[in-house]
């Protein structure tokens, strides 16, 4: 792996990761997302992402679709809290076409009037789908109670009134303000020459020396939850859902991340976890269950457990979850199994170009240099190897504190 970086005079950040692959991957990331939605425009940046594919100054929507199918293996976009990514994969010989395509929709979308209302219907369908999912409803209620002002409390897909309020003038102003070189991170991975990628971007992205002013938020880590118990009654269901979670620290150093990875996997992630063994294998209380730490750069993180069970067993699940999470972690066999699994996982590294791009992005968000990615897996495996069970238990005791937790139950009326 060889990583190189160029920062243009106008702030455009260009990074390549050269690895042996027959595919090339390119992504353009704008440093703005749903956390920047304004009151009354909830869903603006999510809707903007949809509309970017609906026509540019050079290509109407039909030609975008045709060009993509002829030249690109896969392309898509995603809206996060503080970033919006546009990305694609192609065979190596079509690297130039891939760069052209992504730069066109990223910087030159025109938001044709005839597409605006049509695509709003698509987004409204997406919102309706998510609102109908018990899991989405449960996690939304959890985060609304964990945070008071931090954007993590809001589901970034938007609201129907917010999406309906967005017109073409708002979309054009959003592009003018945020989709500029100084707010853009460009990453390419594969068998790529760095100079070639710089030349491609210079060809498609004019210099623009404007800057943006970013927002900042309190992670509210020490603030108590708004509510400790939330019940969401819904219509006829054959299942009930329980989400149990709290805010969690965001770590930057490899050792603390390694300890938290072992804690997460030992307690709640995968079929070897304490959660799985206690709820599914020992008692048969669930088919679907999982747990994880979800972190958002510049915002915060949460630790959560998700369980689906039969409605008449939901009280059993609610009583058992605190017993599982707040019990001192002393099981050396689970600790050793988890540690060995994670060492094997990270020793393999990643196989696809897009995996390396994601890793570079995460390193940047942690305040590291892109170059630090080159030996990341060796360093992280070394950090994992040094973790002790006492360190895992110390982190559990410090972070999984009963009074910080919120329980959300979604069950049939």
Structure description:
This protein is an alpha+beta fold. It has 15 helices and eleven strands. The protein has two domains: 203 residues, Metalloenzyme, LuxS/M16 peptidase-like (Cytochrome Bc1 Complex, Chain A, domain 1), CATH 3.30.830; 184 residues, 2-Layer Sandwich (Cytochrome Bc1 Complex, Chain A, domain 1). The chain is 43% helix and 20% strand. Strands 1-2-6-3-5-4 form a six-stranded mixed beta sheet, sandwiched between helices. Strands 7-11-8-10-9 form a five-stranded mixed beta sheet, with helices on both faces. Helix 1 packs across helix 4, helix 9 crosses helix 15 and helix 12 packs antiparallel against helix 14. The longest helix is centred in the N-terminal third of the chain and has 19 residues. It is globular, with a radius of gyration of 23 Å.
Total strand segments: 11
Q: Tell me roughly what share of residues is in helical segments.
A: 40-55%
Radius of gyration (CA) equals 23 Å
Count of DSSP helices?
Answer: 15
CATH superfamily of the largest domain: Metalloenzyme, LuxS/M16 peptidase-like
SSE pattern: EEEHHEEHHHHHEHEEHHEEHHHHHE
- Enter the CATH topology name of the largest domain: Cytochrome Bc1 Complex, Chain A, domain 1
What number is the mean pLDDT?
96
Low-confidence stretches: none
Level-2 CATH architecture of the largest domain: 2-Layer Sandwich
CATH class value of the largest domain: Alpha Beta
- Largest sheet at a glance? 6 strands, mixed
Number of domains: 2
Strand fraction equals 15-25%
| Sheet/helix structural class | alpha+beta
Distance between the termini: 56 Å
Overall 3D shape: globular
Strand order in the sheet with the most strands: 1-2-6-3-5-4
């Amino acid at each position: 792996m060889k990583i190189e970086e160029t920062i243009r005079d106008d702030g455009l950040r260009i990074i390549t990761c050269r690895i042996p692959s027959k595919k090339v991957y390119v992504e353009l990331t704008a440093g703005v997302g749903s956390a920047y939605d304004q009151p009354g425009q909830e869903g603006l940046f999510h809707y903007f992402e949809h509309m970017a594919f609906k026509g540019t100054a050079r290509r109407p929507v039909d030609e975008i679709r045709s060009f993509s199918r002829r030249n690109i293996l896969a392309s898509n976009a995603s809206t996060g809290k503080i970033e919006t990514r546009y990305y694609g994969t192609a065979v190596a010989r079509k690297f130039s076409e891939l760069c052209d395509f992504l730069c066109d929709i990223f910087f030159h979308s025109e938001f044709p009037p005839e597409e605006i209302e049509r695509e709003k219907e698509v987004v409204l369908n997406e919102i309706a789908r998510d609102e109908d999912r018990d899991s989405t409803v449960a996690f939304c209620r959890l985060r609304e109670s964990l945070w008071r002002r931090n954007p993590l409390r809001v589901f970034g897909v938007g609201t129907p009134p917010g999406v309906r309020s967005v017109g073409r003038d708002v979309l054009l102003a959003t592009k003018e303000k945020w989709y500029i070189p100084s707010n853009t991170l460009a990453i390419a991975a594969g068998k790529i020459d760095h100079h070639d990628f710089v030349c491609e971007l210079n060809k498609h992205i004019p210099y623009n020396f404007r800057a943006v002013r970013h927002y900042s938020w309190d992670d509210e880590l020490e603030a108590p939850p708004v509510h400790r118990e939330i019940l969401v009654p819904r219509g006829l269901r054959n299942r009930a859902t329980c989400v149990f979670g709290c805010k969690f620290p965001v770590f930057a150093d490899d050792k603390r991340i390694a300890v938290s990875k072992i804690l997460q996997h030992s307690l709640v992630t995968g079929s070897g976890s304490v959660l799985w063994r206690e709820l599914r294998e020992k008692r048969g209380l669930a088919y679907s269950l999982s747990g994880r730490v979800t972190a958002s750069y510049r915002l915060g993180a949460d630790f959560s457990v998700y369980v689906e069970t039969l409605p008449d067993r939901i009280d059993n699940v609610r009583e058992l979850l605190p017993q599982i999470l707040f019990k001192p972690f002393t099981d050396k066999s689970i600790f050793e199994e988890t540690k060995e699994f994670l060492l094997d996982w990270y020793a393999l590294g990643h196989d696809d170009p897009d995996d390396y791009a994601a890793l570079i992005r995460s390193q940047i968000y942690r305040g590291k240099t892109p170059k630090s990615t080159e030996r990341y897996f060796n360093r992280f495996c070394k950090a994992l190897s040094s973790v002790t069970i006492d360190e895992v238990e110390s982190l559990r005791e410090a972070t999984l504190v009963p009074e910080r937790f919120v329980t959300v139950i979604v069950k049939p009326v």
